Structures are given as C-alpha cells and as structure tokens.
Amino acid sequence: MTTTKNDAIALAPLCIYTIRDRNLLRENERWKTFSFVEQRRWREGERLLRSAEADGQHVVVLFSDASRDTGSLIYAALLHDVDIVESETRITDSGLRRIKRTASSTLIVKSTGQPISEIDIRPYRICEAPEFVRRLAWRSPEVRRQPK
Fold it and tell me: How many helices (H) and strands (E) would you count in the chain?
C-alpha cells in the first residue's frame, strides 16, 4: 500500500507504553522525531514493529512523564525504528505530539489483560491500543531530523 504525506494510516491493534522526562519530550516535539537509548533490549517491541510493518500498520508509542507523573499519558508518537545493539536499544519515533492528558490506567497490558498500574515504571509495556489513539488523525509520518 502506497501512502502520501496526507493519507491517513493504519494503526496496529497494540501499542507501546513507556516513560520519559516531560521536558525532554517537550524539547523534541518541534523536530517531530525523537530518539532515545534504553539500557534494556526491546525485543518484544522490535517484534511488534516488524509484525505491524509486514501488515502495513504503524505502532503508536504513548509516553508518561518519568519525573513527575507516570499516572498520566502526555505524548504520543509513531514507532519508526528499534535498533538493538548488545544490551541496549535505540528507539526512534516520528510524529511526536502532545496529547490530552489521559490516565495511564486506561491502557490494558497485553500479557496480563489488566490495566497498567499508575505507578508502573518499567522501561516499556506492550498494551492494547486505546480507541483515542485512532482519533488523533495520524498521517503518514513526515520525518524531520534533529540537527547534530
């Protein structure tokens, strides 16, 4: 399926929840891309991305504020790449945007079928994609790189 910059895109039924400092997210919002390194292997995240790509879908990443409030989702992005090297993972997202504050407990963890805890601080969780992410009018990502 070919999309142009203005075409709506298909989203995977699962998403990734993670935490990052709100100020870091705010600083990267204008660039529309956001890369970070996690000191763990995102193997399941990588499998989810590759499976979604094979189905012509995009994976949404939902962020809570790691420094102040893990109980609220505050940003969303589309997962662009997962690169695992030894014991760490570089994650690159595109389309980073602020979202209406939503309780992180609205997310259902795939492995347990239970809502995520509002004090969950794991590096990431695979969750069922909530309905509100489909209403965010996602478009085919326009990637602008940060200056080096």
Answer: 3, 6
- The β-bridge partners of 82 are 91
Count of Cβ atoms closer than 10 Å to residue 11 Cβ? 18
* Chain segment 121-146, per-residue pLDDT in tens: 788 999 999 999 888 877 765 544 44
Q: Please report, to the nearest 10 degrees, the dihedral formed by the alpha carbons of residues 74, 130, 59, 126 taken in order.
A: 90
What are residue 146's phi and psi, to 5 degrees?
Answer: -70, 145
- How far apart are the C-alpha atoms of 133 and 12, rounded to whole Å? 11
Instruction: Of 81, 107, 142, 144, give the one whose Cα is nearest residue 19.
Output: 107
pTM for the full predicted model: 0.86
Percentage of the chain modeled with pLDDT above 70? 88
Measured CA to CA, the distance from residue 54 to residue 68 in angstroms comes to 37
CA distance linking residue 34 with residue 66, whole number of Å: 16
**Surface-to-core class of residue 44, CB atoms within 10 Å of its CB (0-12 exposed, 13-18 middle, 19+ buried):** middle
